[in-house]
Amino acid sequence: MNALTPHVAAHVAAQDAGRALVSLRDLRKSYASAAALDGVSLAVARGRIFGIVGRSGAGKSTLLRCVNLLERPDSGQVHLDGQDLLTLDRAALNTVRRRIGMVFQHFNLLARRSVADNVALPLELAGVPAAARSARVAELLSLVGLADRAGAYPAQLSGGQKQRVGIARALAGRPSLLLCDEATSALDPETTTEILLLIRDLRDRLSLTVLLITHEMAVVKAICDEVAVLERGRVIEQGRVFDVFTRPQHPTTANFVAEVIGTTLPDGALGRLPAPQPGTQRRILRILFAGPHASRAVISEASREFGIDLNIIAGRVDAIGGAPFGVLAVAADGPPGRLMQATAWMRGLGLAIDAIDAIAAEPAALAA
Amino acid sequence: MWLTPAMQDLLLDAANETALMVLAAAGIAIAAGLPLALLLQATAPDGIARHAAVNRVLGVVVNAIRSVPFIILMVAIVPFTRAVAGSSIGTTAAIVPLAIAATAFIVRLFETALRDVDRGLVEAAQAMGATRLQIVTHVLVPEAAPGLVAAITVTLVSLVGYSAMAGAVGGGGLGDLGIRFGYQRFMPEVMAIVVVLLVLVVQGMQTLGDALVRRISRK
Ligand SMILES: Nc1ncnc2c1ncn2[C@@H]1O[C@H](COP(=O)(O)OP(=O)(O)OP(=O)(O)O)[C@@H](O)[C@H]1O
Ligand SMILES: [Mg+2]
């Protein structure tokens, strides 16, 4: 993909820019130690919540900071709404930045300004008159549910409240794009959910586009529409969240996904299964039901069609972005040839199937 | 009162001279020190207007002044003092070296206070599209205010001490009075009054400064 000629690359960039609110092309950024970004291209469509997930040091913050040019890439292109940001001078860039909200992991509120004055800061910087400012601040504070804390100082607020102030402040200039750098990583799980739902709600109400980075797949699952997985400065996988969760292509992605939708077997579950019949083989399978087959009676059908025993060991049903999916761990007993036919048939229906014998063997060994 | 009226007048004059030296030098030091400290901070490697050469030169000059003992600085800059104050002797003349020493002193304290402002706040302001001047006026200075006030307090207290030394070039003031009457003319009660006055002034300044810092910080 790096073999694109400059002409083609420019054409592609222009096309992306037409559709997407944010379009990043072949961003590279190196620090003395190593490359933080090693050729990243992304397009974020309008109105989407786009998640960038990756381990610590993968380059997530660097990437996000390239969008409003807090960090200038060594090379590559950054387009916002079709505008090439890297060609702007300082004043023009400041004007663009006023239309981009940014929310930070550690809130970055001014300690000596009240809640209202913190939210008013971007308006002050933009030269909005005092009267218009206070009206807008009141509106923003009620939008994030903090109308009653206008006079408080950041030190008097909980983490979740501080982040609400951070979000209100980010929205002050009516941005079309909201950048969130680990916006919930300093918060407890319940507050995290609260803030994530707030962000999604605001996206819906204000038709925002949100680009958020996180190291938690749970955040992606909770609110993102699309996700890109970043590893060592490269995008290793990208797509609709449902697809990436249900059919991860890259081992790193599979690991991330397993954290959220992995089926862990109950302790001793395998020991309690009846011993397999002589002449049969036992495979432990993880079956992921998604899409049109989620509700089909696949298990009983496979059992009937192929004459094998399928014992359900563990299972759960969940939803990503409103789309249901289920994960089952089953012990499949049968002649080896039949087992292969059955798994092939299920794969043919679009189910994702992994043999997890190796993983399953461990608790069994412990139980024995 | 066991002081003669003449002595009371001398004491009052001396107190006024000390107040004049300290306040004038502090005023100049604050007015010159804040822009210099902002320049140092802004031109630092992680500052908002990186400039290695400016940062280096300014840092070296400030350190050079700070490393010269005040009594030597006073003598060394006599020609400059004469050019500025018209004379190298007297209270007004003493303000010149005091102001220079206090400026070099307060620049470093101010710089530390400014550096203590969380980098994330500057970044947040940049992300909002703040100009560099706006970052200074809306973020750096107001957020550093408690630290800046503490720096001013320390400088005022130090200036009280330095101003006593300025008596050596005829600067007058309480320190000078204490030496001339209390020590050289064996009037221990004058020395005692001078010492008590200085202690009270320093205590008062420190207490006021601390109270102000507490009042304006919202941590
Ligand atoms: N200012 C900098 N100077 C030197 N190296 C840097 C700088 N910023 C980032 N890096 C390096 O670039 C790489 C990517 O950093 P980045 O902060 O983008 O990672 P991240 O994915 O956000 O990690 P985390 O989840 O820990 O925040 C890291 O190896 C980091 O050490
Ligand atoms: Mg980061």
How would you describe this protein?
The complex is a heterodimer of chains A (368) and B (219). Chain A has 2 domains: 6-99 and 175-260, Rossmann fold (3-Layer(aba) Sandwich), CATH 3.40.50.300; 264-367, ACT domain (Alpha-Beta Plaits), CATH 3.30.70. Chain A is 39% helix and 28% strand. Chain A contains 13 helices and 14 strands. In chain A, the strands form 3 sheets. In chain A, strands 6-7-8-3-9-10 form a 6-stranded mixed sheet, sandwiched between helices. In chain A, helix 6 (159-171) packs parallel to helix 7. Chain B has a single domain, classed as MetI-like fold (Orthogonal Bundle). Helix content of chain B is 81%, strand content 0%. Chain B has helices at 5-43, 52-67, 70-76, 78-85, 91-115, 119-127, 132-165, 174-183, 188-216. In chain B, helix 6 (119-127) packs antiparallel against helix 7. In chain B, 40% of the residues are buried. The chains are: A alpha/beta (368), B mainly alpha (219). Chains A and B meet through helix 3, strand 6 and helix 4 of A and helix 6 and helix 7 of B. Bound molecules: adenosine-5'-triphosphate (ATP) and magnesium ion (MG). Magnesium ion (MG) binds next to helix 2 of chain A. Chain A: Keywords: Amino-acid transport, ATP-binding, Cell membrane, Membrane, Nucleotide-binding, Translocase, Transport. Chain A: Part of the ABC transporter FtsEX involved in cellular division. Important for assembly or stability of the septal ring. Chain A: Belongs to the ABC transporter superfamily. Chain A: Residues 22-257 form the ABC transporter domain.
Summarize this entry quickly:
Chain A is built from 13 helices and 14 strands.
